[in-house]
């Protein structure tokens, strides 16, 4: 398993958000996490990739993605909450700055990645002037840019037009077929129906698995 969750519990503002959650996130599978607004989907995604710690229980990440020098797991691509970028820089400048941290992707590859998401790497417009859809595409570029083997995506289809959403669905299917593990949330049941191979539903403080629609 890539991620194993055992008897996880988490409280928020004095209230139990999760109790006795047990999950297995498997390689090469598209997992959907669904639940009403405010149910804690983003919190659970943060717990899965180590950005938050449980109050009790444990989240065990496959050792192949861990390095003692690094708190955040390696080869994880993450989009959680709102898209984040330096607003005074262009899109390509944002990606280039991130790429300098690990030196895994070159400028030509970054430019090709932006084009694949419908962004122009030669456009010098600052991100503060991007539309919501453009900011979402840039955030997806950030998640995909270093050949991740695990993708944790919170509402990845937000603000995307239908053509861009369809392209993203096809990309995710292709990555899963290549063995990439994917966990995503969506408020749109259609995205879950079209993509998910496993569905986890938040019910009160528990997370239960439901079978996808055939």
TrEMBL record:
UniProt entry keywords in alphabetical sequence: ATP-binding, Nucleotide-binding, Transport
Key word ATP-binding present: yes
Record carries keyword ATP-binding: yes
Annotated PROSITE patterns: ABC_TRANSPORTER_1, ABC_TRANSPORTER_2
SMART domains: AAA
The ABC transporter domain, residue ranges: 3-213
Domain of life: Bacteria
Protein name, UniProt field: ABC transporter ATP-binding protein
Species of provenance: Mycetocola lacteus
């Amino acid at each position: 398993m890539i991620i194993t969750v055992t008897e996880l519990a988490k409280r928020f503002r004095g209230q139990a958000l999760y109790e006795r959650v047990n999950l297995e996130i498997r390689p090469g599978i598209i997992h959907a996490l669904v639940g009403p607004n405010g149910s804690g989907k983003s919190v659970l995604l943060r717990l899965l990739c180590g950005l938050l710690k449980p109050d009790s229980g444990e989240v065990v990440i496959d050792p192949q993605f861990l390095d003692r020098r690094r708190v955040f797991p390696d080869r994880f691509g993450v989009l959680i909450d709102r898209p984040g970028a330096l607003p005074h820089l262009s899109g390509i400048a944002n990606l280039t700055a991130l790429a300098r941290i690990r030196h895994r992707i070159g400028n030509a590859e970054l430019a090709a990645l932006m084009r694949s998401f419908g962004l122009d790497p030669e456009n010098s417009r600052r991100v503060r002037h991007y539309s919501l859809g453009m900011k979402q595409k840039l955030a997806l570029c950030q998640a995909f840019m270093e050949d991740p083997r695990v993708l944790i995506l919170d509402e990845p289809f937000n603000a995307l037009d239908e053509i861009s959403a369809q392209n993203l669905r096809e990309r995710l299917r292709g990555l899963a077929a290549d063995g990439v593990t994917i966990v995503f949330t969506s408020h749109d049941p259609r995205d879950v129906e079209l993509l998910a191979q496993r569905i986890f539903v938040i019910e009160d403080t528990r997370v239960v698995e439901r079978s996808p629609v055939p």
